[in-house]
Fold this protein.
Amino acid sequence: MKIKVDRKVCAGHALCAAKAPDVYTLDDDGYCNSDGQTVPAGKDEQARFGAAYCPERAITLFDESGKEVR
Ligand code: SF4
């Protein structure tokens, strides 16, 4: 599963990393810097959970075929 983060939309709430610390990381200013990364094996559910908590809906997840999964 691949992570797309719209950096123009991300407002630095840091909820993604708080709810899914194995999946999302933040830069020094508290903005999500996981754009383009692959979800670690076995962490798909955590990735969805963290994305769902993003108040800005800045995170989109894609499967291996490039299909949006949320
Ligand atoms: S929860 Fe959303 S707005 Fe907040 S840092 Fe994560 S991606 Fe950005």
Remarks:
- The chain has one domain: 2-62.
